[in-house]
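Hi D.,

Good news: the full-assembly prediction came through. Inputs first.
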Amino acid sequence: MIFEPAKPEDRQGILAVTAKIDVFTDEEKDTVRELWDDGGYDFLVARRDGRVVGFTCYGERALTEGTYDLFWIAVDPSERRLGTGKSLMRATEAEVQKRGGRILIAETSGMESYASTRAFYESVGYQKEAVIRDFYKPGDDLVVYTLHF
Amino acid sequence: MIFEPAKPEDRQGILAVTAKIDVFTDEEKDTVRELWDDGGYDFLVARRDGRVVGFTCYGERALTEGTYDLFWIAVDPSERRLGTGKSLMRATEAEVQKRGGRILIAETSGMESYASTRAFYESVGYQKEAVIRDFYKPGDDLVVYTLHF
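Then the structure:
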């Protein structure tokens, strides 16, 4: 498995993995494509036998010195439980630190359907640092996980 | 005093008020201009005798249903202690509610130099709902104030 910054030809591979993620809404899937096409965000891919099997999308938050947002992490369902997600996080953290990043922030939902996402962030060392009630919609809190390097 | 959505000819008045705010960095002042010129954000102005004496800039957060960010609030120093800031907040909240907003979020710094800003949000009914340590830079926390309508 190779972890490396995405190349221009990875667009289809990234969108194909995105399409397989049940927990993403159509609007969220569109957002991944918009961030790629916008060009102002960093993508990192996990590649097995040349094929994209996972990716992260991240970028520095405006008006901060070294605070990065993890916008998306997605792993092909066939690759789950193989540690690909954890390795993607570690590779992304290394890239962020290379750029002078001090903090990586992962925002997610407090809904039951995101319980495994929250458990994943906790299992790879992130701490729940903040909650905003009803942020996404009534009954759907924002939960902010952070890693301070 | 009139409170109303900004008109195209308010650009200079908004930038003139921005220039007078000591607590804004040059980068932050540039950001106000960029948000205006970008066109994708809502501005509301306070006008006295035709002159802009304060403004807010706000917008809906992507991927939420009805959560709005207050990006900026600025009041001409000569207008302070006259309740202009509070009236600007109330007028902005009314506009946000008109658009179906449920929550207005005001993010600010935990630094000593922002103590009066934090006191202002608290005095107009906002609650400190979250803190992210060292968010802006080491020693400079993010403090998130919210009003749930």
